[in-house]
Write a sequence for this structure.
């Protein structure tokens, strides 16, 4: 499943990220968003969601949330 289907407040593990953009992949990696890392959806917004990765909170758009596969 991807982050758009994730339950708010539940911790998931990132399975894979499919963006087809090397710069975006590098940016996500710098945030700590890569396979094997825990991620939690904190809240949902109209155009995306707020997630917790490591010690930070980030707002991501729906397109990016669909690219992050979790289990």
């Amino acid at each position: 499943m991807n982050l758009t289907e994730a339950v708010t407040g539940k911790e998931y593990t990132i399975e894979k990220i499919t963006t087809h953009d090397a710069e975006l992949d590098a940016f996500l990696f710098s945030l700590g968003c890569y396979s094997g890392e825990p991620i939690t959806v904190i809240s949902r917004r109209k155009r995306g969601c707020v997630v917790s990765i490591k010690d930070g909170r980030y707002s991501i758009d729906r397109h990016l949330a669909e690219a992050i596969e979790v289990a």
Notes: The chain has one domain: 3-70. The radius of gyration is 11 Å. The first strand starts at residue 11 and ends at 17.
